[in-house]
Each structure stands twice: as C-alpha cells, then as structure tokens.
C-alpha cells in the first residue's frame, strides 16, 4: 500500500506572536521622523503611533499581510497573551467555528502563573498544547493538581473541556534530553530525543520553538503524530548545535 502524499499549500499555517511586520509600506524620511522611527529598528507601539496606520493607508501604497481566513492551522505563542488576548480569542473562536486546528504554547512558567485567567479563557479552544516540563509543572501548580509528574499533567491537560468536539486535544511536552511526552485520549506515548555528544552542544536557545516548528511542518501535511515528533526532534537537534536560533542552508530531514 502506498502512503498518501499531502502537499501543504501556501498560507495553510498562521502563527501569532509579536510580529515585526504585518503591514508593509515604502515611506519617506518625513514619515519616519514624524513617528520617531529609526531605520532597521523594532519598537513597541505607543499612543503617538495610533494615527500611523491610517496615514500610511492614505499616503502610501500599503500591502497588508493577512492570513486568518486562508489558514487551516493556527499556532500562537503563550507570550502573546500579555499583548493581545482579544486577538487570540477571536482566532480561537474562528478556528472552532470552521473546524480548523488551533495550537498554543504554554511558553513560560511566568505566563502560566501571571496570565492564568487569559490562558484559561482560550484553553477550551486548544487542539494542541505545547510546553516543556517546567511549564507543565507550573501549569499543574496554578491549577491545584498537586502533581509534578509530567505524564500525569499532560493527560490532565488533554482531558480538560473543549469548545469544539471536532478534534481531541493532544498535549506535547518536551523534557530536554528526556523523552517527549504526548498525551491523547487519556493515554501517553513517549518518544526518545536524538542524543547528542556533550561536545557538540552549543546553545539550547530556540530548541523548544524549533521543535514546534518541525512538528507543525508535518502536522500541516497530515502526517501521523510519530512523524510530527520525529521532525520536531530533528529540528531541535539541529538548533542546539548552532549559536542562536539559526539553520543550515539546506535541511537533511528524511
């Protein structure tokens, strides 16, 4: 029997975090100076920037980068809960109403502890929950579960109520050099990571994000969970052998 090959179409996955650009325009120095914007710089918008988008639209050729309607999968970093929880809620509700896949990352212990209400509001819409063992234990603590066992926590998260019954929730917890824990429908699977000699370990920054990226690359192609985790482990393994979250010119994932 030949395996069915699913090609991922452009725009199938939408990610939300703190984007650098979602409206593009070529502007002049006068515009930059007016809003105190320096070249090659990223800033957090302030009250003085409120009129900026309207002015750009009226004076310049603006290209909007939009993707909510087109996307079939959504991935949102937990950090975005501190920036625009209302945006997350709208996307989550859109996903549930249109039988799309909504995934979110716990992102940090801080988010679990100090953005608990916002996180709980969107949790029923999550089809996939990603995190590491530290974040999972923080989630357990703030919910009063009285367990530090990552497998138990993953199962409990997967069994929390859902807004839509289209998909069962899958919880994916990474544990550094220890196996990846995947909980679905009350059961747990563990997947070993790619072991790396200590002398090849360069930088673990970005390893968790790389894992999710690899996982999603297969999920949008409708690959089984085993392949999603394998791709995630591959991507994380590549990242930790390099400085920063950087990639080689060509992947060798097969």
N- to C-terminal distance: 20 Å
Indicate the mean pLDDT.
Answer: 87
**According to CATH, what is the class of the domain at 13-20 and 66-192?**
Alpha Beta
Based on helices, strands and strand pairing, what is the structural class? Answer: alpha/beta
In percent, how much strand structure appears in the residues? Answer: 15-25%
| CATH H-level homologous superfamily name of the domain at 13-20 and 66-192 | Ribokinase
Specify the helix fraction band.
25-40%
Q: Largest sheet, order of strands side by side?
A: 1-4-5-6-7-8-9
Secondary-structure element string? EEHHEEHEHHEHHEEEHH
Please state the oligomeric state of the protein chains shown: single chain
Q: Which fold name corresponds to the CATH topology of the domain at 13-20 and 66-192? A: UDP-N-acetylmuramoyl-L-alanine:D-glutamate ligase
Radius of gyration: 20 Å
Number of strands: 9
**How does the overall form come out from the CA principal axes?**
globular
Cofactor: Mg(2+)
Family: Belongs to the carbohydrate kinase PfkB family.
Domain Carbohydrate kinase PfkB: 66-248
Protein name: Adenosine kinase
Explain briefly what this protein structure is.
Helix content is 35%, strand content 17%. The chain is built from nine helices and nine strands. Pathway: Purine metabolism; AMP biosynthesis via salvage pathway; AMP from adenosine: step 1/1.
Structural commentary:
Helix 8 packs antiparallel against helix 9. The protein is of the alpha/beta class. The chain has nine helices and nine strands. The chain has a domain of 135 residues: UDP-N-acetylmuramoyl-L-alanine:D-glutamate ligase (3-Layer(aba) Sandwich), CATH 3.40.1190.20. The mean pLDDT is 87.
């Amino acid at each position: 029997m030949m395996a069915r090959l699913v090609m991922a179409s452009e725009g199938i996955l939408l990610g939300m975090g703190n984007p650098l650009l979602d409206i593009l325009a070529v502007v002049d120095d006068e515009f930059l100076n007016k809003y105190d914007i320096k070249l090659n710089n990223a800033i957090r918008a302030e009250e003085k920037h409120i009129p900026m988008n309207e002015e750009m639209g009226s004076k310049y050729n603006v290209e909007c980068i939009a993707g909510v309607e087109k996307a079939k999968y959504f991935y949102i970093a937990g950090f975005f809960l501190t920036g625009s929880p209302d945006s997350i809620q709208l996307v989550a509700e859109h996903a549930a109403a249109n039988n799309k896949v909504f995934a979110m990352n716990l992102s940090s212990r801080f988010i679990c502890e100090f953005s608990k209400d916002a996180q709980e509001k969107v949790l029923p819409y999550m089809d996939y929950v990603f995190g590491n063992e530290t974040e999972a234990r923080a989630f357990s603590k703030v919910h009063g579960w009285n367990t530090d066992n990552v497998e138990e926590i993953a199962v409990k998260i997967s069994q929390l109520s859902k807004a839509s019954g289209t998909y069962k929730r899958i919880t994916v917890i990474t544990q550094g050099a220890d196996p990846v824990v995947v909980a679905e429908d009350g059961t747990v699977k563990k997947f070993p990571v790619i072991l790396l000699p200590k002398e090849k370990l360069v930088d673990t920054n970005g390893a968790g994000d790389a894992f999710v990226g690899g996982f999603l690359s297969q999920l949008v192609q409708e690959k089984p969970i085993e392949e999603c985790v394998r791709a995630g482990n591959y991507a994380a393994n590549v990242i930790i052998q390099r400085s920063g979250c950087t990639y080689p010119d060509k992947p060798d994932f097969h």
